[in-house]
Design goal:
Layout (H helix, E strand, L loop, with lengths): L7 E7 L29 E5 L5 E4 L5 H7 L7 E3 L5 H4 L6 H6 L5 E6 H10 L1 H4 L1 H4 L14 E6 L7 E5 L2 E10 L2 E8 L2 E4 L7 H9 L4 E5 L12 H11 L3 E5 L7 H11 L3 E4 L5 E4 L1
Parallel strand pairs: 3-4, 4-5, 5-6, 10-11, 11-12, 12-13
Antiparallel strand pairs: 1-2, 1-14, 2-3, 7-8, 8-9, 9-10
Bound molecules: zinc ion (2 copies).
């Protein structure tokens, strides 16, 4: 087997903040930009692991369009990073995968708090016994066939779990009134929506000598619930991966500008992600 065949493959399904870019009714420079890389669907990743397992990270409001645009043919497992609308409100579009693939029950993996939120937000999927009965049977279009699985995680330590023969590590990142699940798969770390990362986690990520980090980078100005460019860059420097990509950008940052600033700051490959970007890691 060649070394290429042993790599894990990652596809960026969306690189934008909760509004998507362009934003509805906005005529700013980025929202009207002709650069394709400034068109950002809601943040989501797709991983095809080197042992043939297909993982989706987050079921965004754009999931249907992302699945069609990038011809996703199968989803074996789904991770949900947190319960903000832009990361979960496309969950119903998993239905089509449940209907068409051989393994028609799709497991969802998330933190305990997010699992609780999702259960309450979508009772017709996760509390069917409460919603449906012999007097009120499921009729019509049907519901996605999903199972909810809790992942133990904390802000200071990394936990581990093997899913479909793939070794993952997890921790939680502070994000507004909630926490996001950071996902580490082999030599890749995904650090989604967050306002901070615990120093102990940074130390551990550095020691892992990662191939790739994808990290929250909302805008230039400081923000209460997200990393801005300065904070994001400081974490990238501290983790020192072989390469890093930025994600969840809003309309304050145009792709070209952020690319230029990244290049000037780092002597290794750092740049903003764009929709459809393909990356690999060991
Ligand atoms: Zn705009
Ligand atoms: Zn969020």
């Amino acid at each position: 087997m060649s070394t290429q065949a042993k790599k894990n493959h990652l596809l960026v399904l969306g690189s934008g903040t909760s509004t998507g870019i362009p934003m509805i009714n906005c005529l700013c420079k980025v929202c009207t930009s002709r650069n394709k890389k400034d068109k950002r669907l809601r943040t989501s990743l797709f991983i095809a692991s080197n042992n043939g397992v297909k993982f989706l990270i987050d079921t965004t409001t754009d999931l249907r369009y992302q699945a069609i645009k990038y011809k996703l043919d199968r989803i074996d497992s789904v991770f949900i990073t947190h319960s903000h609308a832009d990361h979960i409100h496309g969950i119903d579009d998993l239905r089509q995968f449940c209907y068409t693939q051989e393994k028609n029950k799709i497991p969802i993996y998330t933190s305990q708090n997010t699992a609780e939120d999702i259960k309450n937000r979508f009772p017709y999927i996760f509390q069917t016994e409460k919603i449906f009965s012999s007097l009120r049977p499921i009729v019509g279009g049907g519901i996605p066939n999903l199972s909810l699985n809790n992942i133990e995680a904390s802000q200071q330590n990394l936990s581990s779990k093997t899913i479909a023969g793939n070794r993952f590590k997890f921790c939680l990142l502070p994000h507004a009134y909630t926490e996001s699940l950071a996902i580490i798969h082999s030599k890749f770390a995904y650090l989604p929506d967050c306002s901070d990362i615990h120093p102990q986690i940074i130390k551990k990520l550095k020691a892992m000598q990662l191939d790739l980090v994808i990290i929250d980078c909302l805008q230039v100005r400081p923000h209460k619930t997200h990393l801005n460019v300065d904070k994001c860059f400081a974490f990238i420097k501290a983790i020192a991966p072989a390469q890093a990509r930025l994600i969840h950008m809003n309309h304050e940052v145009d792709h070209q500008y952020l690319e230029k600033v990244s290049k000037k700051t780092f002597n290794f490959s750092v740049s903003p992600t764009f929709d459809g970007e393909k990356l690999t890691y060991r």
